[in-house]
């Protein structure tokens, strides 16, 4: 059916109005049955003649200058005392009005149930508990036979991770749906309209009167499912379907879908309640994930080799690897680790031969020029590694160590094969006359071999932190060795010490202070605050949507953003203030002799300044989220930074491109 001959579901009626919302151009064929206005009368009538003068005036007033109504309007037809809900939006040169009946649901009871479930969601301590609570709450509200949550992997295959099932439909928990069940058009539709209801997949569809009236109804909530979607739901044994999109930070995380074996209505208030629960659960899910990643990053940071003694007694790369290899392999779920520095190879665990490592490094130097990590979970089929002799290796993660502007070392992790068995609810390619979905015990399964576990984003971030600290430790060792052998060469010794100071105190990419140096400055300022009563403040900020910049434009453009931002901010600070790169896209500003008021003013000035930054390859503005913390008695460097970090993440959750002030306690 073309866009000029749209089909509609019968649980609601539809009117197509002119741009001024005064005259009716077309109506759905079920309008008479729903609100008592015949199709012939509805065509070319005034809106006020059908909806009443007060309601039509209110609709026009609220739509004036707007794309859609902020919320639905309710009204009652005097002829049959039917309560109805009206929702309107603009499409092209028309206004589309959707009308649904409102059944009595007991608002107080519904509100109480939703509030109780919101509290339970907020109290969930892990993802499994959170999602189980969500599906049970939704099934209680909608009474569907099966409520499931489907999570998308990086290839857009769906995995059922939580479910509440009554037994009328077979369970799907633990089974997968192939990516071709979720085409791009469907995912894009969920991005625009997160809620979708199919009350009865087998019900006859309604049409517009007059037939073929040229109006685009792809955004209509009442649009009928496409034939291929009807066929798909029939294969699942489903008559009624209700689904809500679950959005992650940057993309669609998954779907909550409710299925029934029989036709199943879902009243508008219930749909709104379910969407509220999904939004709350999504926020809680993102928070739990952020906390889990923070704990993991802290564990990696605790394993870092840089310490106060490393400058006094620097260790050789071989010593570093021997002492830390087991810890690193555990943290990164690897069975082998290799450190390549200055042409030397140091290995631990199960790794390729030195010859294979050398060839691998040569290829990395040519193919991987940016400062971010490189990884694969399929060594045998990855172009860069497919011809290398790497028996027993399926996954590889390579972290560049920026020893200098012209020299790089490499930290390499290797993973073994992870054989996985995927149970599919239906085969990805099923014959047209295939039977309905099988029971879980007979579900089609696939054994995936030749791949390792995937390298998670937080693991790649942690590996970069580890690489930065290793770079400094190795450089410190090199300089120490030079000092022992070049004591009589004063000129060479002076140049070496200058290099050591640069490496020890400055970030190689942005040329601002590195984490080690800014920590020294924070400690010194805290000592002054304790001894002399001086005030100081800390601003922790990072670039909003930096991962999206890297993914869209490449790491080279991401590096340009960091370098340009650092230059801009450093050039705007007072001589007594200091800027340091904390790690990744995070920076720290240490403001001396600053109370809370002055710190907030400075933070707002920096936020506004960054918004003026222009990078040629990026169209969208660059923004930052800033957390501000002022030193208080009892604060250490760790607690001061932690309070600023909490405030910064609060700024991100509150919409980004803003400043938040730290509280006294760390939550």
From TrEMBL:
PROSITE patterns named in the record: GGDEF, PHYTOCHROME_2
Cofactor(s) required, per the database record: Mg(2+)
EC number: 2.7.7.65
Domain of life (superkingdom): Bacteria
Coiled coil regions, renumbered to chain: 479-506
Limits of the GGDEF domain: 534-664
Residue span, Phytochrome chromophore attachment site domain: 126-283
Pfam families according to UniProt: GAF, GGDEF, PAS_2, PHY
Gene Ontology molecular function terms on file: diguanylate cyclase activity; kinase activity; photoreceptor activity
Matching SUPFAM superfamilies: GAF domain-like (SSF55781), Nucleotide cyclase (SSF55073), PYP-like sensor domain (PAS domain) (SSF55785)
Catalytic activity line of the entry: 2 GTP = 3',3'-c-di-GMP + 2 diphosphate
EC category: transferase
Keywords, in A-Z order: Chromophore, Coiled coil, Kinase, Photoreceptor protein, Receptor, Sensory transduction, Transferase
GO biological process: detection of visible light; regulation of DNA-templated transcription
Protein name: diguanylate cyclase
Native organism: Vreelandella nigrificans
């Amino acid at each position: 059916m073309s866009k000029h001959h749209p089909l509609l579901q019968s649980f609601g009626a539809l009117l197509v109005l002119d741009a001024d919302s005064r005259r009716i151009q077309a109506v759905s064929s079920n309008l008479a049955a729903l609100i008592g206005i015949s199709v012939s009368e509805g065509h070319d009538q005034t809106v006020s003649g059908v909806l009443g003068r007060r309601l039509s005036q209110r609709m026009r007033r609220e739509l004036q200058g707007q794309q859609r109504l902020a919320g639905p309007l309710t009204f009652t037809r005097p002829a049959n005392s039917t309560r109805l809900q009206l929702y309107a939006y603009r499409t092209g040169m028309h206004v589309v009005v959707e009308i649904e009946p409102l059944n009595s649901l007991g608002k107080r009871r519904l509100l109480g149930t939703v509030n109780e479930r919101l509290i339970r969601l907020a109290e969930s301590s892990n993802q499994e508990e959170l999602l189980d609570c969500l599906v049970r709450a939704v099934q209680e509200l909608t009474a569907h036979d099966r409520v499931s949550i489907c999570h998308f992997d990086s290839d857009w295959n769906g995995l059922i991770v939580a479910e509440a099932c009554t037994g009328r439909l077979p369970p799907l928990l633990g089974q997968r749906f192939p990516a071709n069940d979720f085409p791009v058009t469907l995912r894009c539709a969920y991005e625009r309209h997160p809620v979708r209801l199919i009350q009865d997949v087998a019900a006859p569809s309604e049409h517009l009167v007059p037939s073929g009236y040229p109006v685009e109804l792809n955004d209509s909530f009442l649009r009928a499912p496409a034939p291929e979607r009807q066929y798909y739901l029939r294969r699942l044994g489903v008559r009624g379907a209700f689904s809500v999109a679950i959005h992650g930070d940057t993309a669609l995380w998954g779907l909550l879908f409710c299925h029934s074996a029989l036709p199943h209505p879902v009243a508008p208030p219930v749909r709104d309640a379910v969407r509220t629960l999904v939004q709350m659960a999504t926020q809680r899910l993102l928070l739990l994930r952020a906390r889990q990643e923070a704990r993991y990053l802290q564990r990696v940071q605790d394993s870092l080799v840089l310490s106060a003694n490393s400058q006094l007694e620097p260790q050789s790369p071989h010593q570093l690897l021997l002492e830390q290899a087991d810890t690193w392999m555990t943290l990164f779920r690897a069975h082998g680790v290799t450190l390549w520095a200055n042409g030397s190879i140091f290995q631990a665990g199960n790794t390729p031969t030195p010859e294979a490592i050398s060839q691998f490094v040569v290829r990395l130097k040519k193919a991987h020029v940016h400062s971010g990590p490189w990884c694969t979970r399929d060594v045998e089929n990855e172009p860069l590694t497919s011809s290398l002799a790497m028996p027993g290796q399926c996954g590889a993660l390579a972290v560049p160590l920026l020893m200098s502007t012209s020299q790089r070392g490499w930290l390499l992790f290797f993973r073994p094969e992870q054989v996985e068995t995927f149970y599919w609810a239906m085969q990805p390619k099923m014959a047209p006359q295939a039977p309905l979905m099988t029971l879980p015990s007979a579900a089609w399964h696939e054994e995936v071999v030749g791949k390792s576990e995937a390298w998670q984003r937080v693991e790649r971030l942690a590996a970069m932190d580890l690489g930065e600290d290793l770079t400094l430790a190795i450089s410190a060792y090199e300089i120490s060795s030079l000092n022992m052998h070049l004591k009589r060469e004063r000129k060479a010794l002076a140049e070496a010490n200058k290099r050591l100071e640069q490496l020890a105190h400055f970030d190689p990419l942005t040329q601002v202070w590195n984490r080690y140096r800014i920590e020294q400055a924070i400690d010194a300022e805290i000592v002054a605050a304790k001894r002399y009563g001086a005030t100081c403040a800390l601003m922790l900020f990072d670039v909003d949507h930096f991962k999206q910049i890297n993914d869209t434009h490449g790491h080279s453009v991401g590096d340009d953003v960091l370098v340009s931002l650092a230059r801009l901010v450093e050039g705007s600070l007072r001589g007594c203030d200091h800027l340091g790169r904390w790690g990744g896209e995070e920076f720290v500003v240490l403001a001396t002799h600053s109370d809370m008021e002055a710190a907030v003013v400075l933070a707002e000035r920096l936020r506004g300044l960054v918004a003026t930054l222009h990078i040629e390859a990026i169209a969208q503005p660059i923004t930052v989220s800033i957390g501000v913390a002022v030193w208080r008695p009892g604060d250490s460097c760790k607690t001061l930074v932690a309070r600023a970090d909490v405030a910064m993440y609060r700024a991100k959750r509150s919409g980004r491109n803003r400043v938040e002030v730290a509280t006294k306690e760390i939550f």
